[in-house]
Structure formats: structure tokens, C-alpha cells
UniProtKB/TrEMBL annotation:
This is Homoserine dehydrogenase. PROSITE patterns: ACT, HOMOSER_DHGENASE. The lineage of its organism: Bacteria, Bacillati, Bacillota, Negativicutes, Veillonellales. It catalyses: L-homoserine + NADP(+) = L-aspartate 4-semialdehyde + NADPH + H(+). Belongs to the homoserine dehydrogenase family. Its EC number is 1.1.1.3. Keywords: Amino-acid biosynthesis, Methionine biosynthesis, NADP, Oxidoreductase, Sodium, Threonine biosynthesis. L-homoserine binds at residue 191. One of its GO terms (biological process) is methionine biosynthetic process. Coiled coil: none annotated.
Amino acid sequence: MKKVSIALLGCGTVGKGVIDLLAMNGPLIEEQLDTEITIKRVLIRDMPKYEQMELPDDILLTTDFADIVNDDEIEIVVEVMGSADFAKDCIEQCFKKGKSVVSANKDLIADYGMPLLKMAKECNVDFQFEASVAGGIPIVRPMYSSLNSNTMEEIIGIMNGTTNYILSNMTDTGMSYETALKEAQEKGYAEADPTNDVSGYDAGRKIAILATLGFHSALTFNDVSVEGIENIAQEDIQHAREMGYVIKLLAIARQDGDGISLNVHPAFIRKGHPLANVGGAYNAVYVRGNCVGDVMFYGQGAGSLPTASAVVSDVMNVILHCNINITGSRDFVWHDPKLKPQDSICAPYYLRMVVDNAPGVLSSISAVLAQHKISIRSLIQKDETTEIAEIVILIDSSAAGLVNQSLKEIEDLACVRKIANAIRVIEV
């Protein structure tokens, strides 16, 4: 039986998951590949911390990357560190030494994925990153393999478990955003500083990766317009429910004759849509191809073993390529993207505003919308007090630029106290 030595860069949640998975399923993997996978070295930062961890005795711990890159027995390096710049340098050194790399680093792939793929081909090695998007859900490889006979039209996903957990709790239990976030932190779903998740940056990096592969275009995180969930209030959740919707943080990539748009934002989505029923910390990706139609991938988007499942699958794929002598031979077709201006992207909107409870308010607001040729689908006045009222308006599909300009003018009206929220409605 052939033997392959690999190394891990990092031994946190995912790295330990890789070690555990290979211990659990080693015989199954060997049976499929006729190859035994051995973890020879693991790069760590804090030697005393990991010396106390229960790791197999034959794994060599090191704090020096040179021990790995200069070890000719190591054929595949698994990068699970999370730091983009240091990881990029390590991966480039591995390529130059003829070592294939598997990465779970979404920050790295979103910013440097295409240059690294090109370099891997030049060095005749593989670079694979299934675990960089949606943890254990197989979605990266299908984008350039199983679905590659299609022109991809749309990718919509719930790609961040933290925000989905928060919004699900707000919907199911009536929690406020602040309470739901605190619970997510207590259960380990959210970091002490949750900005990367709740502000939409994490999902933005993932949609950039999928759109790059699905649209064959040179896209990065900088091409994504990002909005988080910090302003979602319980009032918005309740209004959505009354209208037959739920609120989800969606990552959306669309491609049509006018170009490509990449967005992350909260959205109203119909209760009957498959994505509306994705609860808790689960992830799902909804893909539309011009021939296959609609396909959805669903599962655990994070966690030690689910993510390790994707990592080890990539390792197995690299070994298969080595065994049949096609390592580094895959061509990727990239086009310079034509990005659609954000102001031109159209959608219906839910608008919630606090106004004076006085005659003429509705007509003043309606006049501003009419001036910008925005049609009102429905309008409800709620929660009247002696002095103020809450107005909820659903408008027909309108360009984002016109909506934003209208909201600025409405907010300047003397009778409007504040625009509480403006949320897009996704009709898929």
C-alpha cells in the first residue's frame, strides 16, 4: 500500500478535526485510495499548549515552518491557520517545493485565490479549498465540476451560521437582537468581537469565492457590497411574519446580460422558499444554472468534524490526482468581470419609519415615492400613540439608487422622525 505524509499548518478547531477524522475513518479512506495517509508534522505557535493536547505520539510538533517546507517526505500541506498574509507566504513556498496544498482559509481564498491557483498550475501541484465555504457542505467542487456544463445565473446562500442562529432565535422566541447575540456568544457560535459575522464580512468572502468559480470571473471580496444584521429589530421580524416572510442574511451573486452583482444583506424571503426553513447555525446554498435549474446544498457550515470532512476530501482528491498523474493539470477559465453598478440593482423593499401622527403624513411620503416613479405595493399604519405612529410600506421592485435617494428626501420631511429600516425583498 502506498503511503503519503501530510503536514498541518495550525491545530485549532479544524486542524484537530482533521486529526480526529483520519483516526476515525482511516481504514475507509485507505480502502478507497489504496493509500495510507500519515500526519507527520503540525505547525503550532504555542508549544506548551499543544504538548498537553491528546495528539497521536507519532505526530511531530514544530513552531518552525521550515521544518515542514524543507521535509521532502511531506507531499501535501493542509493550511488551517486563518491568517491570510502569513498563510499566503507559506502556501507559495510549498508550491515552489512541489507540495500540493489544501486550505480552509476563506480570507485567503477570497483575496488571493486566483493568483494562487495560477501559481499552483505553474508549479505542477494542486491547490484545493472546499472547506473555505460552508464548512462540510460540498459546494466549491460542484461549482467547477458537477455543474460546469451550466451557465450559472444565480447563487444565493445562508453562509454564516452565527447570523442565522441569531435571526432564527429572534424569529422563533421573540428575542431582541442584543439578547440573541449574547446567547450566540455564550454557546460559542459568535466570537467576543462578532463584527466579522454580524456585519456580513464572513459571508461576503464566501460569496466572492463561489461567484469566482461559478461565473469564471476574477472577483474578490472588494467587489462585494456588504450590509449586516445589526439594525434588525424585533419589529421587523414581526412585520415580516405578518406579511408571510422571514428575515435572513443572504449572500447573493447574480449574472445576466448587464453584468455581475455581488451583495450580502438582510432580506425578506417567502416562508415557502427552501432557504426560509434553514434554521439555527445551519448553512445552505441555492444555485440556479441555465440547464440544471434550481439546486440547493444544505448542512453544517462550520464545526470541527464537518469542516474536517471537506478538508480530508480535498486531501483524498489530491492523492487521487497524484496516483493518476494529473496533479496541477486543471485549467481554470477566468474573465475580467463586468460589475453591475449597485445603484442599478432592483428589488422590492420593506420600509419601516416613525412619523408624526398627523394629517398629510402619508400623502407627503407617497408624493416623494411617486416623484421617483416608485410604486407602493402596500402601506400599513401601526402602533399609533398621541404623537407618533409607525408606518410600514412595501414597494415594488425599484433601483437601489432611487430608493436611497427617496429615503433621504423622506427623512428630510418635517413629519418624519426617522427611517427605522429598509430591507430588500428577495423574490426567487
